[in-house]
Design brief:
This protein is mainly β and about 350 residues long. The chain contains 3 helices and 16 strands.
Length: about 350
């Protein structure tokens, strides 16, 4: 049974009957015919793991082992494929599957995958996909679509059929503009398209009225997109490394903003209206040429972290920093930029 591992490194012990009755997740580093036989024997042995117990499975696939009926009740499936191994047909029979993560060596997704209409989350990160099939529109219950680190430069229009989508991740791609189909996702709450070649946002970007998280960092945008100021539900706005030269006074309209990150731009000053962001907790302005901090920054009573370079600040601005520190604000030199999924309430997924 050494091929079967729980939570990546804990061997299954047959004698631990009480523990095994509560088993919910299995990690199989290499699924072979021998491993599958062992699983089947274990399933029918003295310590039975009934079908409804196993809900999470993560495995590396060297070949198609045939049917995996003992895992018919899976809700979470992660498969890491060896080269020249295709997606097995039995995945489409898993009618309870909610989360599917595929790490492919061959950047071709069989059409059958798009018959999983009950799927809630599809993660196809780091697969070098050149395009996404138009059949993606068949996944009518999809809520999260994560396509980070592929070679995509566009999305199929069938995306507009995914009316339940709340999260889309397109980081590290080849996009030169925001795909028009994104603007039709009326329930979208989180959208990330960092590390692409975006130069501007469409004027009707404000149609995403429920958007709370937006990251367009590391794109040659240059000008702060004013269409963002209509998104009154925004809580997290990241525009790091975009060559932005100024912060418009309209920034004060985003009164729900909790985290604003504008690091490594070309910003020289901060508008007085920054003091209107009463919900702001994190303000990252590191790597800019800011000399002056307005006194209104002290109106940010919820501010916890201010990241700024103090070398070029005026004497008055340094005094304001000192007052902020006394009021409990942490003035620091750097802060880690979190990833999109850190903000999303997710199911308990042990192999992620």
């Amino acid at each position: 049974m050494s091929d079967i591992v729980l939570f990546k490194n804990t061997p299954i012990i047959r004698e631990e009957a009480t523990f095994l009755e509560r088993l919910r997740a299995v990690f199989v580093p290499y699924l072979t015919e021998t491993t599958l036989d062992a699983l089947d024997q274990f399933h029918s042995g003295n310590y039975i793991i009934t079908n409804h117990h196993i809900t999470h499975l993560s495995l590396r696939l060297q070949n198609d082992p045939g049917s995996l009926e003992i895992f018919s009740e899976l809700e979470f499936l992660q498969i890491d494929f060896d080269p020249n191994v295709w997606i097995p047909h039995w995945i489409t029979n898993m009618t309870n599957l909610k989360v599917l993560i595929l790490v492919l060596q061959n950047p071709i997704i069989p059409r059958e995958i798009f018959n999983l209409s009950h799927l809630h989350t599809l993660i196809l990160e780091k697969n070098s996909l050149p395009e996404l099939s138009d059949h993606i529109g068949n996944l009518s219950n999809l809520k999260e679509l994560r396509l980070e680190q592929n070679k995509l430069s566009s999305l199929p229009q069938s995306i507009t059929q995914l009316h339940s989508l709340t999260l889309v991740e397109l980081d590290y791609g080849n996009f030169t503009e925001i795909p028009s189909c994104i603007l039709s996702l009326s329930k979208l709450q989180a959208f990330s398209i960092s590390c692409n070649k975006i130069t501007s946002l469409p004027q009707n970007f404000y149609q995403l009225e429920y958007l709370e998280f937006f990251d367009a960092s590391i794109n040659p945008i240059h000008t702060f997109p004013e269409t963002l100021f209509h998104l009154r539900r925004l809580k997290y706005l990241y525009l790091n490394n975009c060559n932005i030269k100024s912060i418009p006074k309209f920034i004060g309209d985003l009164d729900n903003l909790k985290d604003l990150r504008l690091a490594n731009n070309l910003i020289n000053d901060i508008p007085f209206e920054i003091g209107h962001l009463k919900s702001l907790e994190i303000l990252n302005l590191k790597g800019n040429n800011i000399e002056y901090i307005p006194h209104t920054i002290r109106d940010l009573k919820n501010l916890k972290f201010l990241v700024i370079d103090s070398k070029v600040l005026t004497k008055d601005s340094k005094e304001i920093l000192g007052l902020l520190k006394k009021e409990g604000v942490s003035v620091i030199k750097r802060i880690v930029n979190p990833r999109l999924h850190h903000f999303i309430t997710r199911n308990n997924i042990p192999f992620n």
